[in-house]
UniProtKB/TrEMBL annotation:
This is NISCH protein. The lineage of its organism: Eukaryota, Metazoa, Chordata, Craniata, Vertebrata. InterPro entries: PH_domain-containing_M2 (IPR053015), PH_NISCH_C (IPR057714), PH_PLEKHM2 (IPR057288). It is found in: Cytoplasm. Keywords: Cytoplasm. The keyword Cytoplasm applies.
Length: 348
């Protein structure tokens, strides 16, 4: 350990997505290659001597305690734990949550010393992994609110690779076997489902960690919610969700020294008749077992919705991933123009 293949793979994975800005301390990590990266892991991050680094991924992450702060992290999977190497600015991003992070090193702020904090989730503390719709993100759940993290990969390939690597290292854990399941008869198996709702697909790993995948009903629920937001403009049976993707909305801030653009995380949903942008809560749902009350906000909050028939043109950037799309809609204030021609439409 480590094999040439593993070192080459980890070096290839050590690429920060171009749309994510990282601090100086994380830029240093992103510049490491091969053996230097493995040595950095063992001398600065690894908690025990004999653990092996198996996977590396850059992703935006959300913590259960700070659901509004999306921060970039270098996610490292070893044979003992999952490490989230974070930008030091995150510690100060949400002041009322300062108790969540130990702020002993805050005197380093003004020096040339760049501090990174590392959040550790031991594999033995891992309880479940919830995979989001269309593998756009996944949530890792431990035994308390401090141990819930969502990785917003916005990329099904990265999610799939991470889950595979995590299952592989979990297989190495020596845990006591689960008790033998009691054989159930047909009636007790199917008669106890009094919720009237299909359970999500659960895969219980040999390490007793649950991997939970969304079922078809989740898409149905989403379609119903979208139809509700459309104020009954369309009939539900004909409403099909064609695309669900985690994206960013670009907000240009003009007037500054250079016209900068900020990226606002949004869930884009395309139906056969409309285009929607939602603010989605990626971390609070489904409710963790220890949650005493429902989250303060709904899972989906409508940010913007436009009809496809009002779409005038789509402008495409020619750069490589991530692709920028600009949707230009006809600026018609009143959606159903034909209905209201009887009113004084040409007045004020």
């Amino acid at each position: 350990y480590p094999s040439e293949f593993l070192m080459q793979k980890i070096t290839e994975d050590n690429q920060v997505p171009v749309h994510l800005r990282v601090s100086v301390s994380l830029q240093y990590v992103a510049g490491l290659k091969g053996r230097a990266l493995v040595e950095f892991f063992h001398s600065n991050i690894a908690e025990v001597e004999n653990e092996e680094l198996r996977h590396l991924m850059w992703s935006s992450v959300l913590f259960y305690k700070t659901p509004n702060v999306e921060v970039i992290a270098c996610v490292l999977v070893s044979t003992k734990a999952i490490y989230f190497l974070l930008d030091d600015s995150f510690i100060h991003a949400d002041e009322h949550q300062s108790d969540f992070w130990n702020k002993e090193n805050s005197d380093c702020e003004n020096s040339s010393f760049h501090l990174s904090c590392c959040f550790v989730l031991k594999l033995n503390d891992l309880q479940s992994v919830n995979v989001g719709l269309f593998d756009q993100y996944f949530r890792i759940t431990g035994h308390s609110a401090d141990h819930i993290v969502t990785c917003l990969t916005r990329d099904s390939y990265s999610t799939h690779t991470f889950i595979q690597q995590l299952m592989a290292v979990l297989s190495l854990l020596a845990r006591t076997p689960s008790p033998e399941p009691v054989d159930k008869d047909f009636y007790s198996e199917f008669g106890s489902k009094n919720t009237g709702k299909m359970e999500n697909y659960e895969l219980i790993h040999s390490s007793r960690v649950k991997f939970i995948y969304p079922n078809e009903e989740e898409i149905g629920d989403l379609a119903f919610l979208v139809a509700e937001k459309m104020d009954g403009l369309t009939n539900l049976p004909s409403l099909n969700i064609l695309l669900y993707v985690l994206a960013f909305q670009v907000n240009h801030t003009e007037g500054s020294a250079q016209n900068t653009s900020s990226l606002q995380p949004k869930t884009l949903i395309l139906t056969s008749s409309d285009l929607f942008l939602f603010d989605e809560d990626y971390i609070s749902y489904p409710l963790p077992e220890f949650a005493k009350e429902p989250p303060k906000r709904d899972k989906y909050q409508l940010a913007d919705g436009r009809r496809i028939r009002d779409l005038d043109r789509v402008l495409m950037g020619y750069q490589t991933y991530p692709q920028a799309l600009t949707f230009v809609f006809d600026d018609v204030q009143n959606q159903d123009l034909m209905q209201n021609l009887t009113l004084d439409h040409f007045g004020e």
